[in-house]
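Private note to self, pasted from the team thread so I don't lose it. Backbone tokens:
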């Protein structure tokens, strides 16, 4: 869970009001979009600003005498949203002049830069404002995720490890050291910071309109010279687009001369800061070299060889800069001599599914549900690509084998893994070390040791862990696999949807559960949820980041419809594939199927402590078979209990079992294992928690029991009455046939996909 910082509640409320398109006289943020012929990308930029979650804002689009239809696009936004205003420069002035127009007209507490060809993560403003408020910063910036519009190069993060590992301050000497022309480190002048408007006004800081490029850099230096506290939050929330018409990476001799002139003016302001003066002197020399380099290139292009040779002779330190154009020329020649490496075309009809749970087959309810969704897409003629952007899905298991059911996916990509046939092998040494520790701990416990090395280290579930920068970059690099729809498996993956770099592609979240409602179920002081607890407001916010939410039960769909009005709720139950007739099985053989999650572990602990002895007292030869990864949570098995771990094919176990148990005490869950058991024609004993959300459809087909005595009695009743087991099994089959057929279950998802594509 990504918790909000303290102290922003009032601002968050202002933001919610601003989202309603009401006129806000004093917004938190003024976004300045300097617009010159930005028509191809302007709509995405404006939409991303307006979609900023939890803040009040205005968007100032400053037209710099565009010759395309940028003004018409801007006007369409202004006509329907009062937060958008269109301004005009008196003549074509370049980005600096346009931003000064916006700065003069801005009403926000903060002044934010947004280029007309870039766009933002919806959480960007809320997170940056929270950090700025906590640290009392005057300037705050984030990392850039740089992507090539053509797809010719992989997306990259901008900041290096030194700046990108944690929040940090940027002081004047440090800034000057990292903004040298053609320097080795990422140039901090490319960042797109937000400025506290009162600080800029107090110090009369404006853009240098003589500059056509590097105007952002000059403003940042002016702020730092005036004493600004510059905070860097290295989350990649700003999406920086490279394309053929961008001016940021083209340095002419004229532009370089203006930068050199600005540098000479700034040099006089460094006298009071010896550290800054020393760094500025080195930076100034790099600017001189860059000017000489740019002038030489211009002279060569114009055919003025003597002038070019003279510049080279007078500025020998510019010589190393010629490596870049020489290398670029050699690469162009190389591309002509050999066939270009094919760039895979995005699949316009493909579905890309992002999951941070370990999916290797139908080993648990949530995996079975995701595989069923993929099967539906395949049936509709759509390829489904599974992207697992974290090596943490391995947990303490350094390798695993993909089951045949995984063939339904057109591709399976797992971060930090190596694939050999059906085997996925972890490339992260921490996974192998954790596996070794786990094996050692188990051996020591079997030998009677406890504590220390014998203590079992709990590995938190990967689905809700905070996102790492490298994981988000991995998502961005997989974005070309499918452009038909993006689906996030669990709401915790909603933060990754913008990193697919395709605003406008339909998005959906597989809800799985109502997580904020689970907290109260773990309030006994003895247990805790295996998934991060989520407040209702955060759950609503995360669900609202997608166009649709896929809910497995009516209760969850109703919550989305009532609380997330801009997101469509799709009720998509788990489909059943029933056997032809009920199977009464062996009354002395019980079955529990579950994954290694807190609700399943707690359910079995409750059953062992409170029910199992009564079951054995009634039928001493009763056997309880437990299938699934929940077996890993138990070192020893009570008398009559057999742990089987993950079973590739559960059909024989279901056929042999007389009764299937689901003694859940927490977590409403997916109901998948209950539906699966009924579809296998089995009699079931369940708790009220197991039936939550499906009691109307399935309640008459099971025995419900909540107290230990009731649960043991229900098992005994079914053990003694084969006819009753068969009757319950037949009722269960009838219920799943009527309510949970694949076509019926997936109809809402199919209809949504059809409407989204139209």
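Design output:
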């Amino acid at each position: 869970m990504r918790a909000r910082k303290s102290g922003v509640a009032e601002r968050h409320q202002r933001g919610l009001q601003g989202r309603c398109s009401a006129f806000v006289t004093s917004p938190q943020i003024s976004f300045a979009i300097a617009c010159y012929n930005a028509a191809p990308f302007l709509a995405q930029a404006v939409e991303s600003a307006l979609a900023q979650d939890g803040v009040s804002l205005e968007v100032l689009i400053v037209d710099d005498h565009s010759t395309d239809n940028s003004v018409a696009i801007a006007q369409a936004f202004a006509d329907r949203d009062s937060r958008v205003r269109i301004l005009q420069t008196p003549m074509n002035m370049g980005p600096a002049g346009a931003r000064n127009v916006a700065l003069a007209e801005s009403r926000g507490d903060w002044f934010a830069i947004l280029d007309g060809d870039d766009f933002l993560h919806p959480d960007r403003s809320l997170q940056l404002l929270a950090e700025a408020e906590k640290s009392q910063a005057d300037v705050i910036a984030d990392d850039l995720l740089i992507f090539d519009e053509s797809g010719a190069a992989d997306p990259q993060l901008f900041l290096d490890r030194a700046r990108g590992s944690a929040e940090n301050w940027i002081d004047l000497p440090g800034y000057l050291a990292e903004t040298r022309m053609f320097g080795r480190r990422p140039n901090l002048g490319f960042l797109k910071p937000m400025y506290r408007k009162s600080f800029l006004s107090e110090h009369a800081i404006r853009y240098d309109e003589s500059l056509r490029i590097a105007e952002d850099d000059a403003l940042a230096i002016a702020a730092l010279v005036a004493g600004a506290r510059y905070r860097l939050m290295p989350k990649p929330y700003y999406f920086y687009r490279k394309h053929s018409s961008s001016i940021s990476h083209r340095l002419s001799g004229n532009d370089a001369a203006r930068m050199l002139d600005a540098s000479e003016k700034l040099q006089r302001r460094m006298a009071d800061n010896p550290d800054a003066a020393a760094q500025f002197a080195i930076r100034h020399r790099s600017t001189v070299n860059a000017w000489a380099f740019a002038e030489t290139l211009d002279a060569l292009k114009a055919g003025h060889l003597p002038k070019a040779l003279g510049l080279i002779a007078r500025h020998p330190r510019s010589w190393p800069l010629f490596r870049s154009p020489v290398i670029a020329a050699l690469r162009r020649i190389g591309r002509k001599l050999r066939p270009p490496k094919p760039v895979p075309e995005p699949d316009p009809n493909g579905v890309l599914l992002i999951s941070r749970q370990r999916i290797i087959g139908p080993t648990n309810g949530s995996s079975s549900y995701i595989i069923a969704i993929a099967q539906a897409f395949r049936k509709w003629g759509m390829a489904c690509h599974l992207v697992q952007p974290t090596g943490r899905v391995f947990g303490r298991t350094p390798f695993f084998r993909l089951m045949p059911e995984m063939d339904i996916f057109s591709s399976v990509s797992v971060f930090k893994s190596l694939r050999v046939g059906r085997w996925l092998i972890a490339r992260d040494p921490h996974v192998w070390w954790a596996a070794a520790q786990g094996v050692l701990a188990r051996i020591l416990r079997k030998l009677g040791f406890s504590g220390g090395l014998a203590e079992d280290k709990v590995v938190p579930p990967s689905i809700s862990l905070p996102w790492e920068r490298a994981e988000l970059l991995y998502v961005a690099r997989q974005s070309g696999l499918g452009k038909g729809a993006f689906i996030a498996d669990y709401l915790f993956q909603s933060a990754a949807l913008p990193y697919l770099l395709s605003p406008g592609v339909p998005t959906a979240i597989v809800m799985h559960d109502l997580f904020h409602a689970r907290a109260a179920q773990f309030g006994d002081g003895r247990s805790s949820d295996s998934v991060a607890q989520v407040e209702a407001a955060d759950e609503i916010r995360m669900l609202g980041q997608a166009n649709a939410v896929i809910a497995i039960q009516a209760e969850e769909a109703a919550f989305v419809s009532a609380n997330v009005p801009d997101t469509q709720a799709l009720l998509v139950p788990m489909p059943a594939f029933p056997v032809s007739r009920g199977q009464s099985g062996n009354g002395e053989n019980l079955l529990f199927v579950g994954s290694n999650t807190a609700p399943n572990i707690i359910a079995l602990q409750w059953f062992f402590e409170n029910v199992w002895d009564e079951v054995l007292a009634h039928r001493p030869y009763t056997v309880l078979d437990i299938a699934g990864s929940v077996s890993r949570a138990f070192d020893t098995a009570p008398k009559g209990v057999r742990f089987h771990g993950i079973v590739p094919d559960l059909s024989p176990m279901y056929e042999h079992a007389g009764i299937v148990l689901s003694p859940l005490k927490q977590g409403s869950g997916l109901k998948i294992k209950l539906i699966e058991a009924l579809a296998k024609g089995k009699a079931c004993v369940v708790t009220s928690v197991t039936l939550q959300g499906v009691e109307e459809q399935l309640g008459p087909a099971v025995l419900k029991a909540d107290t230990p005595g009731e649960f043991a009695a229900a098992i005994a009743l079914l053990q003694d009455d084969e006819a009753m087991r068969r009757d319950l099994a037949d009722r269960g089959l009838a219920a799943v046939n009527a309510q949970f057929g694949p076509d019926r279950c997936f109809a809402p998802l199919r209809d949504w996909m059809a409407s989204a594509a139209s």
